[in-house]
Design brief:
alpha/beta; about 25% helix; about 40% strand; about 170 residues; elongated; 7-stranded mixed β-sheet
Protein backbone atom coordinates (compact mmCIF):
# COMPACT_ATOMS: atom_id res chain seq x y z
CA UNK A 1 0.00 0.00 0.00
CA UNK A 2 1.22 3.46 -0.85
CA UNK A 3 1.17 6.35 1.60
CA UNK A 4 -1.43 8.21 -0.50
CA UNK A 5 -3.82 5.25 -0.29
CA UNK A 6 -3.42 5.08 3.50
CA UNK A 7 -4.28 8.78 3.81
CA UNK A 8 -7.24 8.37 1.46
CA UNK A 9 -8.69 5.51 3.54
CA UNK A 10 -8.19 7.44 6.77
CA UNK A 11 -9.78 10.59 5.30
CA UNK A 12 -12.87 8.62 4.23
CA UNK A 13 -13.37 6.95 7.63
CA UNK A 14 -12.54 9.61 10.22
CA UNK A 15 -15.52 8.62 12.40
CA UNK A 16 -14.20 5.09 13.03
CA UNK A 17 -11.64 3.48 15.32
CA UNK A 18 -8.28 2.27 14.00
CA UNK A 19 -7.11 -1.30 14.56
CA UNK A 20 -4.07 -3.22 13.34
CA UNK A 21 -3.98 -6.99 12.93
CA UNK A 22 -0.25 -7.78 13.05
CA UNK A 23 -0.68 -11.50 12.37
CA UNK A 24 -3.71 -13.71 11.80
CA UNK A 25 -6.32 -12.95 14.50
CA UNK A 26 -3.83 -11.03 16.69
CA UNK A 27 -4.37 -7.33 17.14
CA UNK A 28 -2.13 -4.59 18.45
CA UNK A 29 -3.56 -3.60 21.83
CA UNK A 30 -5.90 -0.66 22.31
CA UNK A 31 -3.08 0.92 24.31
CA UNK A 32 -1.00 1.58 21.18
CA UNK A 33 0.54 4.94 20.34
CA UNK A 34 2.06 6.27 17.13
CA UNK A 35 5.55 6.95 18.45
CA UNK A 36 7.48 7.78 15.31
CA UNK A 37 7.05 8.36 11.59
CA UNK A 38 10.10 7.71 9.46
CA UNK A 39 10.62 9.05 5.96
CA UNK A 40 13.22 6.66 4.58
CA UNK A 41 15.29 6.98 1.41
CA UNK A 42 16.75 3.60 0.46
CA UNK A 43 19.78 3.46 -1.86
CA UNK A 44 20.74 -0.14 -2.43
CA UNK A 45 23.17 -2.36 -4.30
CA UNK A 46 22.14 -6.00 -4.72
CA UNK A 47 24.33 -9.08 -5.03
CA UNK A 48 24.40 -8.65 -8.82
CA UNK A 49 25.91 -5.16 -8.42
CA UNK A 50 22.66 -3.52 -9.57
CA UNK A 51 21.67 -0.28 -7.90
CA UNK A 52 18.16 0.76 -6.91
CA UNK A 53 16.51 3.45 -4.81
CA UNK A 54 13.07 4.10 -3.37
CA UNK A 55 11.31 5.85 -0.50
CA UNK A 56 9.37 4.32 2.36
CA UNK A 57 7.10 5.73 5.05
CA UNK A 58 7.37 3.76 8.29
CA UNK A 59 4.92 4.37 11.12
CA UNK A 60 6.05 2.98 14.46
CA UNK A 61 3.36 1.59 16.78
CA UNK A 62 4.05 0.96 20.47
CA UNK A 63 1.87 -0.44 23.23
CA UNK A 64 2.10 1.62 26.40
CA UNK A 65 2.64 -0.60 29.46
CA UNK A 66 0.95 2.09 31.57
CA UNK A 67 -2.31 1.64 29.63
CA UNK A 68 -2.59 -2.17 29.44
CA UNK A 69 -6.21 -2.10 30.59
CA UNK A 70 -7.27 0.34 27.91
CA UNK A 71 -10.13 -1.00 25.77
CA UNK A 72 -10.92 1.97 23.53
CA UNK A 73 -8.83 2.08 20.35
CA UNK A 74 -7.40 5.24 18.83
CA UNK A 75 -9.78 6.99 16.49
CA UNK A 76 -8.93 7.39 12.84
CA UNK A 77 -9.39 11.13 13.36
CA UNK A 78 -6.68 11.22 16.05
CA UNK A 79 -4.27 9.10 13.97
CA UNK A 80 -4.87 11.33 10.97
CA UNK A 81 -4.19 14.44 13.08
CA UNK A 82 -0.87 12.95 14.25
CA UNK A 83 0.14 12.03 10.71
CA UNK A 84 -0.83 15.45 9.35
CA UNK A 85 1.24 17.16 12.07
CA UNK A 86 4.22 15.06 11.00
CA UNK A 87 3.56 16.02 7.38
CA UNK A 88 3.81 19.70 8.25
CA UNK A 89 7.24 19.08 9.73
CA UNK A 90 8.55 16.60 7.14
CA UNK A 91 6.81 16.19 3.78
CA UNK A 92 5.54 12.77 2.81
CA UNK A 93 6.38 11.06 -0.46
CA UNK A 94 2.82 9.98 -1.15
CA UNK A 95 4.01 7.40 -3.71
CA UNK A 96 6.19 5.64 -1.12
CA UNK A 97 5.39 2.23 0.32
CA UNK A 98 3.80 2.40 3.77
CA UNK A 99 5.02 0.08 6.51
CA UNK A 100 4.21 -0.26 10.18
CA UNK A 101 6.96 -1.07 12.67
CA UNK A 102 5.82 -3.07 15.69
CA UNK A 103 6.79 -5.62 18.30
CA UNK A 104 5.56 -6.99 21.62
CA UNK A 105 6.74 -9.61 24.12
CA UNK A 106 5.69 -12.49 21.86
CA UNK A 107 6.27 -10.93 18.43
CA UNK A 108 9.68 -9.85 17.12
CA UNK A 109 10.28 -6.32 15.93
CA UNK A 110 9.28 -6.15 12.28
CA UNK A 111 8.41 -3.71 9.55
CA UNK A 112 5.04 -4.92 8.36
CA UNK A 113 3.38 -4.27 5.02
CA UNK A 114 -0.34 -3.67 4.65
CA UNK A 115 -1.73 -6.84 3.10
CA UNK A 116 -5.38 -5.77 3.21
CA UNK A 117 -7.71 -3.41 4.96
CA UNK A 118 -11.34 -3.84 5.85
CA UNK A 119 -14.14 -1.73 7.20
CA UNK A 120 -16.30 -3.40 9.85
CA UNK A 121 -19.07 -1.38 11.47
CA UNK A 122 -17.21 1.42 13.26
CA UNK A 123 -13.70 0.06 12.67
CA UNK A 124 -10.96 0.40 10.08
CA UNK A 125 -8.75 -2.68 10.31
CA UNK A 126 -5.38 -2.84 8.61
CA UNK A 127 -4.18 -6.42 8.20
CA UNK A 128 -0.41 -6.42 8.30
CA UNK A 129 2.17 -8.97 7.24
CA UNK A 130 5.75 -9.62 6.34
CA UNK A 131 7.36 -10.42 3.02
CA UNK A 132 10.20 -12.88 2.69
CA UNK A 133 13.59 -11.62 1.66
CA UNK A 134 14.50 -12.37 -1.93
CA UNK A 135 17.48 -12.24 -4.26
CA UNK A 136 16.80 -9.50 -6.81
CA UNK A 137 19.61 -10.68 -9.09
CA UNK A 138 18.55 -14.33 -9.54
CA UNK A 139 18.69 -14.18 -13.32
CA UNK A 140 21.97 -12.27 -13.42
CA UNK A 141 23.58 -14.63 -10.90
CA UNK A 142 22.24 -17.76 -12.58
CA UNK A 143 19.91 -18.83 -9.78
CA UNK A 144 16.94 -20.70 -11.25
CA UNK A 145 13.62 -20.03 -9.49
CA UNK A 146 13.03 -23.76 -8.86
CA UNK A 147 16.36 -24.03 -7.07
CA UNK A 148 15.21 -21.57 -4.46
CA UNK A 149 12.19 -23.65 -3.55
CA UNK A 150 13.82 -27.09 -3.61
CA UNK A 151 17.53 -26.64 -3.14
CA UNK A 152 18.01 -23.60 -0.94
CA UNK A 153 21.45 -24.65 0.31
CA UNK A 154 22.77 -25.34 -3.19
CA UNK A 155 21.27 -22.05 -4.38
CA UNK A 156 23.31 -20.12 -1.85
CA UNK A 157 26.45 -21.93 -2.98
CA UNK A 158 25.69 -21.21 -6.67
CA UNK A 159 24.96 -17.53 -6.02
CA UNK A 160 28.03 -17.04 -3.87
CA UNK A 161 30.42 -18.94 -6.11
CA UNK A 162 33.48 -16.79 -6.91
CA UNK A 163 32.99 -17.46 -10.63
CA UNK A 164 29.40 -16.13 -10.62
CA UNK A 165 28.54 -12.59 -11.69
CA UNK A 166 27.50 -11.72 -8.13
CA UNK A 167 29.55 -9.34 -5.99
Amino acid sequence: MKTLELFSILEQHQDKTLLFEYTSNKFIGANYHITEVKHIKVDSVDCGAQTDSWNETIIQLWESPLERNRTKYMSVLKALAILKTVGKMRSYDLASEIKFEYSNASFHTAQLFVNEFKIEENKVIFQLGTKKTDCKAKELCGVPEMAIDRLEKETVEVCCDPSSNCC
